[in-house]
Amino acid sequence: MTALIIGLTGGIACGKSTVAAMLSERGAFVVDADRIAREVVMPGEPALAEVAAVFGQAVIRDDGTLDRRKLGEIVFADPDKRRRLEAILHPAIRERMWTLIRQAKADEPGRMVVADIPLLYETGQEGLYDGVLVVYVPREMQIKRLLARNPELDEAQARERIDAQMDIERKKELADWVIDNSGSLESTKRQVEALWRRLSDMRKP
């Protein structure tokens, strides 16, 4: 059976993690860029030292860990600073992700690999994968879900964070496959199951 490497993306608060978990339950090996993004800024990591050098010690807590909230306030309000942060983090994240992907392929050549990457299109990575799956909800639902998930944000801040990404409608247009997560959990599960069957058929020799 041929291994597929799928890029999974969407917009903030669209439910990528929910869909990734459903794919994992069905046997996919999931590589989570958000989790790796936290790992590469742990104390002692080169990327954290570079972040501190660029943004100052104000973004480092007394215990040496990154103050993600303070850094977020800085970069989401200033596109140039956000690009500087991305230039530090994205290469480190991508290198670690592909180490895990290559290891998964070596360990279980026939197993499907799903790379969960919020900024997949924004960083031009779509060509690295056998196909791209977008988890979709309309923009206004994104805003509502983001505010519910992060009550410390006001609506202007929520819109700012969503605007920092490619428009979700454009991602939907570019996708090879789409999961519409704007309905019930059961609806999402049915779509994931149908997609899993299609992808499994593609992997047969």
From TrEMBL:
Catalytic reaction list: 3'-dephospho-CoA + ATP = ADP + CoA + H(+)
Positions in coiled-coil regions: none
Subcellular location: Cytoplasm
UniProt xrefs under Pfam families: CoaE
Residues where ATP binds: 13-18
Keyword Repeat: no
Keywords, ordered alphabetically: ATP-binding, Coenzyme A biosynthesis, Cytoplasm, Kinase, Nucleotide-binding, Transferase
The protein's annotated pathway: Cofactor biosynthesis; coenzyme A biosynthesis; CoA from (R)-pantothenate: step 5/5
Domain of life of the organism encoding this protein: Bacteria
GO molecular function: dephospho-CoA kinase activity
EC number(s) from the headed UniProt entry: 2.7.1.24
The name this protein goes by in its record: Dephospho-CoA kinase
Family annotation (PROSITE patterns): DPCK
EC top class, as a word: transferase
Taxonomic lineage: Bacteria, Bacillati, Bacillota, Bacilli, Bacillales
Role: Catalyzes the phosphorylation of the 3'-hydroxyl group of dephosphocoenzyme A to form coenzyme A.
Similarity comment: family membership: Belongs to the CoaE family.
HAMAP family with a match to the protein in the record: Dephospho_CoA_kinase (MF_00376)
